[in-house]
Design brief:
Length: 118
Amino acid sequence: MHLKNFSVIVRDNVVTLSPAYDLLNSTLVLEKAEEETALPLNGKKKNLTHKLWLDYFCSERLGLPDRQIESILADFRKAHPTWHQFIDRSFLPEPKKVAYHDLLDERYGRLEIGSANS
């Protein structure tokens, strides 16, 4: 993702993110992608871990309280099966769907998020 893929909507002096559009999993397309993100997270662009995302970014950089972080993680756990459903309904060829399912589960595992069913 690049910043150009994000837009904001301003209504009544309230700024919100617009609905997502033009999203592409470049890992599936490039197959040997060197990076997981365009912008570095504490100097890293790949092998992003639970510690980097939650301890460094959410806690240290954003200053989110533990309760809010846990709420976000609960939302991610709940969304896990839905992501798999989206992949199944996508127009991707079957081998890319399998690769996407595997990638999603690998990243959930690396972030130690789990799923609502685990």
